[in-house]
Structure formats: structure tokens, C-alpha cells
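Encode chain A's predicted structure.
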Amino acid sequence: MRKVNATFRDWWGISLAVFCFAAACVLGASYACAADTPPNGSYKKTCTAIYYNASADRITSASCKKMDGKSNTTQFHNCNQCINNGGDISNCNGALECTGVNLPNVGSYQRSCWCCRMVGSTLGCYCNPKKGRSTWTTLTNAASYSDIWNDNGKLKGK
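Encoded structure for chain A:
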């Protein structure tokens, strides 16, 4: 009788383990299937593990590459507001930012500067110097200029 009980107990333990594994697989698959599709944007080229909550309109987590090659975990709110205003969700040195909204459309700066955005009347961008790494640079009262360019990694205007 003891051998029968031990066999039944072993069978029951194995059955319980298989059931738990199957339940975990089903729940995990349904969770993955229920994930919301992240919004479009250039950030998808350099960010991975992107989790988006459509009802909150926010990227709750994304792992984005920085200029030094390391990854940074970041978030972004108001995705649709950015896109509906003509912006792009961009990876700006490991941080998600809304770029391209209400930029001055004068000069050549956009050819060698990236992640450009307006904060009030100030234009800010990462601009490529002739040598070395891009750096963050700003130009105050940017809308008042008829020409804006990248002068060796610095925004200039006239």
C-alpha cells in the first residue's frame, strides 16, 4: 500500500508541476498578446524593450542607446500629442523626447543637428562638430533669425 501511495503522490506532484507550468505559459502568452503597440517614431531604431500603455498614452519603459553606446531606461508621456502636432518621438542620447515641433524652417542646421526642439523661444539641438562627439547647444530667440546654421557643433543665427 505504501508503494501505491508513493506512486500516486509522485504522479500528483508531477501533474501539479505540469499544470502550473502550462498555466504560466498561457498567462504569459496572453499578457504578451495584450500589450499595446507602441506609437511610430524614430526612437524605434535605437530603443528596445518598448512597453506602451495606450490608455495612459505613455511609453512606460524603453531601453535606449546613448551616444557612448550604453543603454538607458526611459519613459515618455503624451505620445499622441507629440505625433498629432507633427513631432517625432526621438531617442535623444538615451532619453525619449518629442522633437521637430514648431522648429524654425530656415538655414542648414537640420542637416547636421538632431533631436531639435523648441522650449519657449529657444531652439535646442544636438549638433555634430567637425571632430568629436555631438553636444547639446541652444539658440535663444530662434524664430527671429532668417538663417540658422551649425558652426562646428554650436547653433548660430543671423
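The chain is about 25% helix and 35% strand.
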